[in-house]
Amino acid sequence: MPTELKLGVINIVAQPHPEGVYLDALNHVAHNGVNFWGDDFATISQPNEIGDGLYQGRILIWTEIDPDAPAINKAELVEVSLQDTGFVPPPELGFNGRIFTYTFREDIHHMFFELRNELGKNLAPKRANRIFSKLLAADRLPRDFPIVETTVIPEDDTIDRLLGLHQLNKLSIFLKRPNADEFGDRAQEVLEDLEDQGARSQDVVLKKAPGVQTLTPNEDNRLLAEVAAQNGHVSAVGKEEDGSKIDGSTLEYPKIMSAMVDDALSLAQAAARLARNYIPPRLG
User: Fold this and answer.
1) Angstrom distance (rounded) from CA 122 to CA 238
2) Which residue, among 26, 1, 2, has the nearest Cα to 259 in the 3D structure?
3) In this predicted model, what pLDDT tens digit does every residue of 222-277 receive, in sequence order?
4) Are 231 and 174 in contact (CB under 8 A)?
5) Residue 36 · residue 128 · CB < 8 Å
C-alpha cells in the first residue's frame, strides 16, 4: 500500500560560507545532544553521502528523566520518589525516542526533514528549526567558525498572500544576512547593503498612515520581504475584503513537500528524490 511522505525544508546559511562549511558544521554537532523544548533533547547523526551532493542522516529526539524529580503514581494520584521505587534511569538512555530521516542538499544548503516518520510520530517545522538552530549555535561550533542561521522555508505564495491583503495595516520584515548564491542581480544589492554596513540582520516595519486605504509596499520592500521569507521572517496585519482580521506570518505557512511512495521505493530514497528535484525560488 502506498505511503505518503511529507517533508519540511530549512534553509541553513553560514556567513561567510567557504567550501565545505555546511558539512563541517553538521559533522561537528552530530551526536551532541541539545535541549530544545521542555525535557526534550535532540541530536543528529553524521551526514552520509548518497550521491549528487546529497547527504542523509537521522534526527533523534528523546526525553530526559530527572532522577531527582518525583514520579506520579497514576493509580493513587500521588507523588513518589524514583529512588523509593528502585528505578534508576540509565544515563545512556533517552526515553520516548523518536527518529526522523533528514536529507541535506549541499549546493543550496537546504535541510529536508520528515514531518511524520514510519511509526506515525510527528516533527513540526518550528520544532525542527529550533533543533537545528540550537545545534548550530555559535557556542556549539569551533571558535571563529562562521555564524550559522536557520529559517523554515514557507510556501511559495506566502509573500503574495501577506502583501495582498485587502487592507494591509502593518508589514514587518526581519532579514538575516543571506548567501549571495540565492540571488539574481537585483537582489544582490540587498546582501551588499547589509555587508557594506557590517550588519548581521535588518528590521523594517511599515505602518499604514491614517486615511490611507492600505499599505502599498514598493519594489524594494517587496524584494526585501521575498528575501526575508527565506532568511528570516515576514508578518502582516490587516483585513480581508469581508472585514475579517488577519495577523499572519511566514512562520505559520511552512512549505510541505509530499509524495506517495510505493513498496518499490524506501522513504529515504523518496526523500532524496524530492530533495534532488526541488527548485528553490530565484530571488530578484
Assistant:
1) 32
2) 2
3) 989 999 999 999 999 999 999 999 999 999 999 999 999 988 789 999 999 999 99
4) no
5) no
Q: How far is CA 119 from the centre of its chain?
A: 22
DSSP annotation string for 156-178 = TTHHHHHHT-SEEEEEEEEEE--
Return the residue matching grid coordinates 550521491: 51
Nearest CA to 171 out of 204, 137, 126, 209 is that of 204
At residue 282, the pLDDT reads 73
Strands 257-261 and 34-37: unpaired
CA dist., res. 189 & res. 121, Å (int): 43
Contact between residue 164 and residue 25 where contact means Cβ atoms under 8 Å apart: no
CA distance 9 to 47: 16
Q: Identify which of 117, 102, 111 has the alpha carbon closest to the alpha carbon of residue 152.
A: 111
Q: Where are the beta strands (DSSP E) in 20-166?
A: 34-37, 40-44, 48-51, 54-63, 71-73, 78-80, 95-105, 110-114, 147-152
**Which grid cell sits at 183?**
540571488
The runs of H, that is alpha helices, within the chain are 21-29, 82-85, 125-135, 158-163, 185-196, 219-230, 267-277
- Nearest by Cα to 227 from 280, 283, 148: 283
Q: Which of 91, 82, 88 is nearest to 64 (CA)?
A: 91
Contacts 24+ apart (CB under 8 A), 190-198: 190/223, 190/224, 190/227, 190/284
Mean pLDDT of 156-181: 91
* 225 grid coordinates: 520581504
Residue 29 has pLDDT above 90, yes or no: yes
3-state secondary structure of 147: strand
Residue ranges of the domains in the chain?
3-153+254-277, 158-252
